[in-house]
Design a protein that fits this description.
The chain has 876 residues and is of the alpha+beta class. The chain has helices spanning 2-38, 53-92, 94-113, 119-122, 126-157, 159-163, 169-193, 213-234, 239-263, 287-299, 311-324, 328-339, 341-353, 356-375, 390-410, 417-430, 440-450, 455-484, 489-509, 545-568, 580-583, 601-623, 629-643, 657-677, 691-697, 707-730, 742-753, 761-768; strands spanning 203-204, 272-276, 281-284, 646-647, 773-785, 806-812, 816-822, 834-842, 847-855, 859-863. The chain has 28 helices and ten strands. The strands form three sheets. Strands 5-6-7-9-8 form a five-stranded mixed beta barrel.
């Protein structure tokens, strides 16, 4: 009797499950009918009950589907065993089952995408799709339910299949639920307090470049196809052959990135100036020009002009300038080739944390995201591979460190040299941008977790990480101590000169910032057109010092949360399938976004957060603390942004990969679960490494490293840290530090006077007089402007507007001068980075030239028009 009773109850549960499985689509159909009926009708087309023929056909189709599902629902109560037998028979024909699931997924996707295309895309079809949209969504949900129902049925009958692929279910559940709860608490805090959304201060940027819906689908489709190919590609491969496969796939990602990124046009903007005669070339502007001038200074034999905090990046730019001949577009091409290695790095990281399909997926997402960043160059504050900015290089350094750190955390031991390599890479990344050093407390916590807080091992491993970090910094510390008298000058100049003076002090003292990009909450835009009420002037209230420091701390929290929001909204916050330029027009990308969420956005936000949390849990369940390493890196790097009062835009780039990495892990883990339920061979490839590699990594007692290994690692990172110092000394000084020698001046003067006519006596007198200032150096960024022409959005002398035609450039030697030469016609030859001799005098904002001699493969002499008087009120 008990066995019969249990069987009877089990049969009833199966019958009820089939009943609800068929009843749910019927219920959803009622809502679809309600939506179709609620759309206003055109009386001219009405033929029955006020409905047009098209509307009646829709209603008939939906009613027929509802009737069919109701029939199946009640049939399942009596004949559930027949339905179960049919499904079991289907399961024996795996190819047919896969075809049904694939077609259902395809139909469900198409039916979902069509009504969610943005109006800008569908245009003339918009009204038609609005009328049938509810029906299409209904059919999409039916397809999704069919897939979910079949998977649930096979899992219920074969639960051991899923148990065999899940790493550690308890850890998966605890960490996933814990991470999701933490995300909800953070977003709840943001919603209640407004922290993380406008208003903010200092460098408060828009959200970063997004990844759009079609790109997500394309990337996941590539990952799913690779899962199906996994058994054939990886079956019975040796360790060396698997590494060859990985090299091939990462190389493929590198090549795709180069092709796609180079295919995007190089767009002028704040950091790239418009092409102008004589060369019609793009030149760096703003911060990019500062970095490029520092690199050019190295090439002409002068040290970097100040205690720069990004020396390794400047040395990298010097190398690119040397290889490209200072041709900006060739330099950018070389940089794209270098930065395209980032997707390859993400492939290796994804493979190490999960699987090869995951690595492929993350690499594709990074390629698509960077393509969008290039497209949106002037629309949001981005930094991309086609700009001379530090963020992409910093991202590369951070990823290299993360790869080494993940590898060490899989088998943490102070004896493993990979910890030393991780520390050296951390220091090298800090020489590109100091921000990554703020992650050290988080990294030490990760080491403690990996070693289960065994004090001796934790302390030793932490010290080794920090020691090798400092090792990479040592050459630059020594250089600053020798040249500037303070080893930490490059840190202090950034902290005191930029962060404290221009970002903290405006909050603490109400003083104005010297930085024109500094944002204050009063800059918030408003649609209120009423005249402001003028209050009588009163003495300003003095804010207590404690409140000011609390306000500063609140600003830091604002930026920290704003960055987390930014990397979350990289993933589509809307069901509509916008392209990148359409996506960034949503309100979330407004600088003063107030936290408003569009309809359906909260659901998509919950889905995104849930998948990211699931990805974190999956990575930790499979790889232990190593799976959380990217999270610690992201949270630590974000701390540096918050302390610097920077958020949004390009400041997200070095860490934004963390969000789509864990999101991809979450989705890919579900795909592998599906593969396991369907008993596909590819399900066994989760893990990413060959069994022999896993066994080697998990050796409980790794051998003590040799002195040769230690010496090689020490030598490697001392060499890396020495690159900026070496670049400051290997190039011979190309020009005199002060002025040309008397002999040189005499030679140049005779050359110039040979070009002067007898009537140009004023010019001859000026050349031989004491007012004439002679300079020689490298001429950078030559541009020609007609009278009255200029860049009105830029206020420097080189690009500003004047009432005379002129050629402008920057003269670089021991220092930098802005040079303007009045000239009636466009110079026919003036290559960038040519040797230039200039004669003229100093004005208030620039150096006014009488003569410019360009000396490159050819020589040209350009003379100021004789009718323009020479005035040297500020002459040296």
């Amino acid at each position: 009797m008990p066995n019969y009773f249990r069987k009877h109850m089990s049969d009833n549960r199966k019958a009820l499950s089939f009943f609800w499985f068929f009843l749910l689509p019927a219920i959803m159909g009622v809502f679809a009918i309600g939506r179709v009926v609620s759309i206003p009708s055109d009386p001219k087309k009405a033929i029955l009950l006020g409905f047009s023929l098209e509307r009646l056909l829709l209603l008939v189709i939906v009613l027929g589907v509802i009737a069919a599902f109701l029939f199946l629902a009640f049939l399942s109560l009596r004949s559930s065993h027949k339905i179960e037998a049919l499904i079991l028979e289907l399961g024996k024909r795996q190819q047919l089952l896969l075809a049904i699931l694939a077609l259902s997924a395809l139909a469900s996707s198409v039916f979902w995408i069509l009504p969610h295309l943005p109006p800008e895309t569908i245009r003339s079809y918009q009204a038609y799709l609005e009328r049938i949209g509810a029906v299409l969504i209904y059919f999409s949900l039916i397809g999704a339910q069919l897939i979910a129902g079949l998977l649930f049925f096979y899992h219920r009958n074969h639960p051991e299949r899923l148990r065999g692929i899940i790493g550690r279910p308890r850890i998966l559940c605890v960490i996933s639920i814990g991470a999701f709860a933490a995300f909800l608490l953070l977003w709840g805090f943001v919603a209640l307090t407004g922290y993380g959304v406008w208003p903010g201060n200092a460098f408060w940027g828009k959200l970063g470049a997004p990844i759009v819906g079609f790109q997500l689908i394309a990337a996941y489709l590539a990952g799913a196809v690779f899962i199906l190919l996994c058994p054939k590609i990886l079956q019975r491969r040796s360790n060396g052959a698997l590494i060859s496969v990985d090299l091939l796939l990462s190389g493929l990602m590198w090549g795709i990135a180069i092709l796609l990124w180079l295919n995007q046009p190089l767009i002028p903007g704040k950091f790239v100036t418009e092409p102008r005669p004589p060369n019609y070339a793009l030149y760096p502007g703003s911060d990019s020009a500062v970095y490029d001038r520092s690199a050019q200074s190295m090439l002409i034999g002068y040290p970097m002009p100040r205690a720069i905090d990004k020396p390794l990046y400047v040395a990298y730019l010097a190398a690119l300038n040397y290889l490209s001949g200072s041709d900006y577009e060739h330099l950018i091409t070389l940089q794209v080739v270098v930065m395209a290695l980032i997707p390859a790095m993400l492939y290796w990281l994804g493979k190490s944390l999960h699987s090869r399909p995951l690595g492929l997926l993350v690499a594709l997402l990074s390629i698509f995201k960077e393509s969008n960043a290039i497209v949106t160059t002037n629309l949001i504050q981005v930094s991309n591979a086609k700009m001379i900015l530090t963020e992409m290089a910093t991202m590369a350094g951070v990823l290299l460190f993360t790869l080494a750190f993940v590898r060490w955390l899989k088998n943490p031991s102070a004896r493993r040299p990979v910890l030393w390599v991780a520390g050296g890479l951390l220091g090298a990344a800090a020489l590109i941008r100091l921000n990554i050093l703020a992650a050290i407390p988080f990294l030490l916590l990760a080491i403690g977790l990996a070693l289960k807080f065994r004090l001796k091992q934790w302390a030793l491993s932490s010290c080794l990480l920090v020691l090798f970090t400092v090792l990479s910094l040592t050459p630059w510390l020594v250089r600053n101590g020798y040249v500037l008298g303070n080893p930490l000058a490059f840190v202090m100049s950034k902290a005191r000169g930029v962060i404290i003076s221009n970002r903290y002090m405006p909050v603490l003292t109400d003083q104005d910032s010297d930085d024109p990009n500094y944002v204050i909450p009063l800059d918030i835009e408003t649609d209120d057109e009423e005249e402001p009420i003028v209050e009588p002037l009163a003495p300003p209230a003095v804010t207590p010092r404690g409140e000011r420091y609390l306000a500063l701390g609140g600003n830091m929290l604002d930026h920290y949360l704003h960055n987390l929001i930014g990397i979350t909204f990289m993933l589509p916050p809307t069901p509509l399938f916008y392209d990148a330029t359409q996506m960034i027009r949503l309100r979330y990308w407004d600088t003063n976004w107030d936290g408003y969420l569009a309809p359906y956005a909260p659901l998509f936000l919950l889905l995104t957060l849930g998948l990211i949390a699931f990805g974190i849990g999956s990575a930790c369940a499979r790889k232990g603390v190593a799976g959380s390493a990217p999270l610690f890196v992201v949270l630590g790097y974000n701390l540096s942004n918050a302390l610097s009062l920077t958020s949004g835009g390009r400041y997200l780039v070095p860490m934004d990969w963390g969000a789509y990495l864990y999101f991809a892990i979450g989705v890919m883990e579900l795909i592998f679960w599906v593969a396991a339920i369907l008993k596909l061979k590819a399900a066994g490839m989760v893990g990413g490494e060959h069994p022999a590699m896993i066994a080697a990594e998990k050796s409980s007692n790794p051998p003590k490293p040799s002195m040769i290994t230690a010496g090689l690692v020490v030598g490697l990172f001392l060499s890396v840290g020495s690159i900026p110092v070496l670049f400051e000394s290997i190039f011979a000084q190309r020009y005199p530090a002060e002025a040309p020698t008397a002999e040189m001046i005499a030679t140049y003067r005779s050359t110039i006077e040979a070009r002067l006519s007898d009537a140009e006596t004023d010019q001859r007198l000026f050349l031989s007089g004491d007012e004439a200032v002679w300079l020689i150096g490298r001429g950078l960024y030559p541009r020609y402007f007609e009278a009255g022409d200029g860049d009105l959005e830029r206020f420097d002398a080189l690009l500003g507007t004047f009432d005379f035609s002129r050629v402008t450039f920057q003269l670089l030697n021991a220092g930098t001068r802005n040079v303007i030469l009045p000239l009636a016609d466009v110079p026919d030859y003036f290559p960038n980075a040519a040797d230039v001799v200039v004669v003229g005098c100093n004005q208030e904002r620039y150096f006014e030239a009488l003569v410019v001699i360009v000396q490159a493969e050819e020589q040209r002499i350009y003379l100021r028009p004789s009718q323009l008087p020479i005035t040297c009120s500020l002459a040296e």
